[in-house]
């Protein structure tokens, strides 16, 4: 058995664990997490995962290794639903929104802490989370200001060295401001950019063309062969329908995100402000960049320091004990 908490962070849901409660060996740890969440199984019926990439996430939290620079360390692990694979190659900004509330819950910071400095172990980046008031179970407003995010995965903000490239005949901007993203106009794929998720996911020709682009972009961004990786993401952009800056459809990397990830949004918003990028046509004089997505909108604001701040909410859903399935084969 293992002590667990489940929190909704932004538009994701994850299992939050103390690092001290997990095996030190990463391979042993990952095996435990697969059994805990119920993978591989598209329903995750024998675990506490939610059967979707957005609900099969784990946050591992510990006191900061360097208390002078951060209060807590946060390692994000993506537990794949349909494969026996746990990935640590990228952070998750939505699950990040729950780290401050979890740190208060576990006594890693004072229970009334208004700010929590979080070191993202996946990238080394620092985030300052400003927390609103709230008791356990309340929805808490969380402002996340990202520090040192440019090139945190690929090594530079523009990993190809260009603000615009062309891949498979399509103009793209490859950017990493916390999350490697390939931006392209939906119109260049014969789309309006306002299609429903189900329609996009059912389009086999779109998937094949998008994956060719993603694989080539991964090479150009210095990520190597990304055929089995979850980055870079592909975000298709289009003019907004409402009062947003632009409309987005993001693939993670094969399913269409019902919203947009926090760090992906930061990268997209940064591209909006880069003259010559495929998103620059949507730039305004305002630092606020509102990204419309399939289920609403996401606000991010560029900061004078070159970072970005986003506003999310988090809520504790449960706190208790979970029993991973046995590592030995069994019959259902």
From TrEMBL:
<keyword id="KW-0413">Isomerase</keyword>
<dbReference type="Pfam" id="PF04303">
    <property type="entry name" value="PrpF"/>
</dbReference>
<dbReference type="InterPro" id="IPR007400">
    <property type="entry name" value="PrpF-like"/>
</dbReference>
<comment type="similarity">
    <text>Belongs to the PrpF family.</text>
</comment>
<protein>
    <submittedName>
        <fullName>PrpF domain-containing protein</fullName>
    </submittedName>
</protein>
